[in-house]
Amino acid sequence: MKVVCSSSGLINLSHPGQGIMDLLGAGFHDLMIDLSCCYDQELESRIKIDQALWEKCAASQLNIETAYAPYLPRDTKDADLNERLQELTLESIGLCGQAGCHYLIVRPLFAGVGKEDEISLNQDYYISLAQTARQHDVMLLLENQCKNLGGHLVRGICSDGDRAAEWIDRLNAGVGEERFGFCLNTGVCNLCGQDMSEFVTSLGSRLKTVILQECNGQEEAALLPFTSVSNKQSQTDWLSLIRSLRRIDFDGQLILHFSDTAAGFSPLLRPGLLKLAQSVGEYFKWQIGIEHALKKYSSIVLFGAGNMCRNYMKCYGEAYPPLFTCDNNKSLWGTEFCGLEVKAPEALKELPDDCGIFICNIYYREIEKQLREMGLTNIEFFNDEYMPSFHFDRLERRD
After folding, report:
1. Where are the beta strands (DSSP E) in the chain?
2. How far, CA to CA in Å, does 173 sit from each of 122, 133, 206, 319?
3. Is-contact 235 216, C-beta < 8 A?
4. How far is CA 11 from CA 256, 263, 291, 323, 324, in A?
5. How many helices and strands (H and E) does the chain possess?
6. Residue 8 and residue 257: Cα distance in Å, rounded?
7. Counting C-beta atoms within 10 Å of the first and last residue's C-beta, which end of the chain has fewer, N or C?
8. Are 303 and 360 in contact, with CB atoms under 8 Å apart?
9. SS3 60
C-alpha cells in the first residue's frame, strides 16, 4: 500500500523545485499530478509542462504514480469538446508513459451526452484509449462522479458500486486484459451521501486507488481528512471506509488531496502541514493494513490488560494468539486476563528477537518511551477505533 500526495495546491508545475523539496522533507515519495492544470477550461490552449518537472522528480526520486487526465467543468454542455478531450487524454497517456506513471484517472464523457447514451458512448470512448494505454503500460481508472441537478449535487455516472464493477469487467473483457480499474473519491461519496462500505465491497480487487479528501457533505472541497468537523464529529464516514478496505485486503494507493486546506495556510507553514498530511496518510495505511503488522512476526505479546486488550482478543486472538500480556499495574501480575497470563514489563526482556510487542493502551507514546528505555525493539501499536462495534463492551474496574 502506498501513500501518495496530490500535487494540487502544493507544486507549481512550471516552477516545481520548492514544492518537491517540501514534499520530500515531509516524507512523501509518491505523487499524483493533475494534468487538467495544464490546459485552459475550453481545452483550446495548452499550458506547457516544464520538462524540469519530470527531471526534478526523477532526480529527487519522487515517483509520479498517478495522474488526472484533463476534464471539463461540470456545467459544460458543448458536445464538440468531447473530441478534443479524447485527443488530450491520449496525449496524457503518453506523458504518463514518459514519467513511468502507473495510473491515469479518466473521467467519463458527459457534455451533451443523454442518460440513455452515456454507457454505450463512454464504453466506446474508453475502448478507444486502451491500445495507447497498453503501449505505454498505463492502467486507466474510472472515478465516481456527482452532477449538478438544479443547484444540488447528486449521484452521477459511476456512482453505483455494482454498476461500476460491471462496467469495468465489460471494458476489460472488451480489450482482453486488465487495462481498467477504479478510483474511489471519498469527497464525491460524501457529497452524494453514499455508503462507502457497500461501494468498496462491490468493487473488490477492481479498486486500485482511493482519493482521501474531506468535505462538509454539502459543498465540494478538498480538505485534509479529519479537518471538517461539526459537533466533534468528522463529516466523512471514515469508519466504514477503513473497515471495508480491510475486508477486501486493499493494497493499492491512498491519495491525499487537500488543496483547499493548503490554500488556507501560509507557504511558510506548508512544511508543517505536509508533515501532518504524511502522518494522516500513514495512519490510514496502518489502520487498513493492521494485519500486515501482525503477520510480520513469528510470535507476539501484548502490553496492556484492559479494554483494548480485550478487543484485540475478540478480533485477532484466534488468528494471532499472543504469548502473554503485560501491564504496569503490579496488582495484575500473575493473574489471567482474556485467557492470557499478565506479566510484569520486565518479562519482555526475555522475548526472542522475532517477537513483536503490541501496545494495547491509549498511552502509546508514554509506554513506547518506557519500552525503548528498556532496550526493547519490535514495538507496534494496536488501536481499536475501527474494530467492529460489537467488540466495544467496556470493562469496569473494581477496587
Report:
1. 2-6, 30-34, 63-68, 103-105, 139-143, 146-149, 152-155, 180-185, 207-212, 229-230, 233-234, 253-256, 299-303, 325-326, 336-337, 340-343, 355-359, 379-381
2. 15, 15, 13, 37
3. yes
4. 14, 12, 34, 49, 49
5. 13, 18
6. 7
7. C
8. yes
9. coil
**Nearest of 233, 232, 223 to residue 280 by alpha carbon:** 223
Dist. CA 72–CA 53, nearest whole Å: 24
Tracing cell 526482556 back to the chain, one arrives at: 349
Q: What residue type is 30 in one-letter code?
A: D
- Rounded to whole angstroms, the Cα distance separating 183 from 187 reads 12
What cell does 261 get? 486546506
DSSP codes, 296-350: T-SEEEEE--SHHHHHHHHHHTTTS--S-EE-S-GGGTT-EETTEEEE-GGGGGG
C-alpha cell belonging to residue 225: 481528512
The span from the first CA to the last CA of the chain, in angstroms, equals: 45
- Residue 97's CB is within 10 A of a number of other CB atoms, namely 16
What pLDDT is attached to residue 52? 63
Distance from C-alpha of 183 to C-alpha of 177, rounded to nearest angstrom: 18
Q: Which helix (H) or strand (E) holds 279?
A: helix 270-288
Can you list the residues of the chain whose pLDDT is less than 70? 37-52, 73-76, 78-79, 111-116, 151, 388-399
Take residue 357 and report the three cell numbers written for it: 510487542
**Cβ neighbour number for residue 85 with a 10 Å cutoff:** 21
Three cell numbers, residue 279: 502522518
The total of other beta-carbon atoms located within 10 Å of residue 126's CB is 24
Cell of 235: 463529516
Query: Which residue, among 209, 262, 220, 235, has the nearest Cα to 103 in the 3D structure?
Result: 209
C-alpha cell at 8: 494540487
CA 33-35-36 angle, to 5 degrees, is 125
**What is residue 78's DSSP assignment?**
-
Q: Is the dihedral of CA 340, 342, 343, 348 positive or negative?
A: positive
